[in-house]
């Protein structure tokens, strides 16, 4: 949850858990709304203006409808595959349980490196074309895209195909439209120079906080070294490192086979004293 001056953006929420065994067997999966509610806590839902997800895997998009239900002014920004998936809930779609207005899910495809204004806010979003690496050796879970509106949400985790992956630059603006706070967010690690922020945009304003993804970082080159040294944010937070196949009640452990220590060493070397690994439920104030 990113909050500045009473306007909030929520990044891809992940509260629902399914074991690795259940995911592998493609067992049925639905959003754990009780877990979502507990995870969101008592935030000011009327202040939430956007929910952003760089791709459409289940661990990034499955819980978004519940967030939108609780945050009535929020719009979800994702890719075309995510838009087609969530069309299963559209009031004017073919689904049997319409719960979501179609205009509350916006696909950012085709708007690369241009600003999208978030309605009723001082927030704008720039999608930057990115990538998603294979997760285990050559195996790429949830690869591919969905090119038509669904009538029901995918029954198994494997049905949430990722589509085109995007990084997102998020600005909070003053009343004159000048950016006063800037966040870079990516929910998949990238091979450089993919997902680099355009130099002209960085010349306008430095990134205040970079939100980076540790998961699958072993599968890409020079990450996050290139990203951090090129962008030079004031501060960087790295997340999505913990094993999301565990119950949320368990003490967080790294994703199996992921070398989190090596990632942290690279990040700390690239941005000395300005990087931290995000812990669950941690609150950080950056001024």
Tag the structure with descriptive keywords.
single chain; alpha/beta; Metallo-beta-lactamase, Chain A; seven-stranded mixed sheet; 20% strand
Provide an overview of this structure.
By secondary structure, this protein is α/β, with parallel strands linked by helices. The chain has one domain (2-205): 4-Layer Sandwich (Metallo-beta-lactamase, Chain A), CATH 3.60.15. Helix content is 19%, strand content 20%. The protein has helices at 20-24, 33-40, 58-61, 64-70, 80-86, 199-204, 225-231, 260-270, and strands spanning 2-4, 7-11, 48-52, 75-78, 105-107, 116-117, 123-129, 166-173, 179-185, 209-213, 235-239, 275-277. The strands form 2 sheets. The protein has a 7-stranded mixed β-sheet with strand order 6-7-8-9-10-11-12, with helices on one face. Strand 6 (116-117) and strand 7 (123-129) form a beta hairpin. The longest helix is centred in the last third of the chain and has 11 residues, at 260-270. The mean pLDDT is 95.
């Amino acid at each position: 949850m990113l909050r500045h001056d009473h306007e909030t953006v929520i990044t891809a929420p992940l509260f629902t858990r399914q074991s690795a065994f259940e995911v592998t067997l493609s067992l049925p999966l639905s959003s754990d709304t009780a877990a979502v509610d507990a995870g969101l806590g008592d935030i000011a839902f009327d202040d939430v203006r956007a929910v952003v997800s760089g791709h459409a895997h289940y661990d990034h998009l499955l819980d978004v409808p519940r967030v939108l239900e609780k945050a009535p002014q929020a719009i979800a920004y994702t890719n075309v595959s995510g838009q087609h998936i969530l069309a299963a809930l559209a009031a004017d779609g073919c689904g049997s349980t319409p719960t979501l207005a179609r205009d509350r899910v916006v696909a950012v495809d085709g708007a690369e490196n241009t600003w999208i204004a978030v309605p009723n806010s001082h927030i704008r979003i720039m999608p930057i074309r990115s990538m998603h690496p294979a997760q285990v050796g050559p195996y790429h879970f949830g690869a591919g895209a969905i090119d038509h509106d669904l009538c029901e949400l995918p029954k198994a985790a494997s049905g949430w195909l990722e589509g085109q992956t995007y990084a997102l630059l998020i600005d909070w603006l003053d009343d004159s439209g000048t950016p006063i706070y800037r966040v870079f967010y990516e929910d998949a690690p990238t091979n450089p120079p993919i997902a680099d922020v355009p130099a002209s945009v960085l010349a306008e304003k430095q990134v205040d906080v970079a939100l980076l993804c540790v998961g699958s970082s072993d599968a890409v080159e020079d990450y996050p070294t290139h990203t951090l040294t090129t962008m030079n944010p004031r501060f960087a937070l790295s997340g999505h490192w913990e094993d999301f196949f565990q119950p949320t009640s368990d003490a967080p452990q790294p994703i199996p086979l992921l070398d989190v220590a090596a990632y942290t060493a690279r990040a700390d070397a690239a941005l000395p004293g300005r990087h931290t690994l995000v812990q669950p439920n941690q609150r950080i104030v950056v001024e």
